[in-house]
């Protein structure tokens, strides 16, 4: 991060008093939190959303050990018209089941998809096929 970003962050933090960061709120919520692009934008101290702001938001979340979905919301190429009221789910990247499932859906080439999906509903009476489980997860992450 550059000095200007650090100064903006300090000013925002001072103005907000003891307000928690998105990362702190996510951890307090059990590792999954729904936020808006406007909330994220305000946390980094910008007044408008744009290509470089989306990139900075993605970098910030990654630095704080968080992932997000739908992934396209923070992609300048895929989200040509970001809006402050667009929702985004953030989650802790802790290699837990939630993280594994989201990674399996968003980047299946880097995951053991059958193992992750079979672990998803372990202990539940429903016997869903891996394809149906994947379909349900895709609905959740907006793919």
Write down the domain tally: 2
Query: What would the average pLDDT be, to the nearest integer?
Result: 79
- Poorly predicted tracts of residues: 4-9, 11-19
Helix proportion of residues, in percent?
Answer: 40-55%
Q: What would you call the quaternary organization?
A: single chain
Report the portion of residues in β strands: 5-15%
Strand order of the largest sheet: 1-3-2
- Structural class, by secondary structure, is mainly alpha
Provide tags for this entry.
143 residues, three-stranded antiparallel sheet, 7 helices
In short:
The protein has 143 residues and is mainly alpha-helical.
Write the layout of secondary structure elements.
Blueprint: H1 3-16, H2 22-28, E1 32-36, H3 37-44, H4 51-63, E2 66-69, E3 87-92, H5 97-106, H6 113-120, H7 130-141
Antiparallel strand pairs: 1-3, 2-3
Helix pairs in contact: 5-6, 5-7
Overview of the structural elements:
It contains 7 helices and 3 strands, in the order H-H-E-H-H-E-E-H-H-H. It has helices at 3-16, 22-28, 37-44, 51-63, 97-106, 113-120, 130-141; strands spanning 32-36, 66-69, 87-92. The chain is globular. It starts with a helix and ends with a helix.
């Amino acid at each position: 991060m550059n000095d200007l970003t650090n100064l903006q962050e300090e000013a925002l933090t001072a103005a907000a008093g003891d307000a928690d960061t998105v990362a702190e709120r996510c951890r307090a919520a059990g590792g999954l939190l729904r936020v808006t692009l406007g909330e994220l934008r305000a946390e980094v101290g910008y007044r408008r959303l744009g290509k470089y702001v989306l990139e900075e938001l993605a970098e910030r979340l990654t630095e704080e050990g968080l992932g997000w979905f739908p992934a396209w919301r923070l992609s300048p190429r895929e989200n040509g018209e970001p809006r402050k009221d667009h929702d985004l789910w953030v989650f802790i990247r802790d290699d837990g089941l939630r993280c594994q499932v989201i990674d399996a859906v968003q980047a299946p080439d880097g995951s053991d998809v059958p193992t992750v999906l079979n672990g998803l509903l372990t202990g539940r009476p429903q016997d869903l096929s891996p394809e149906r489980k994947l379909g349900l997860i895709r609905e959740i992450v907006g793919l």
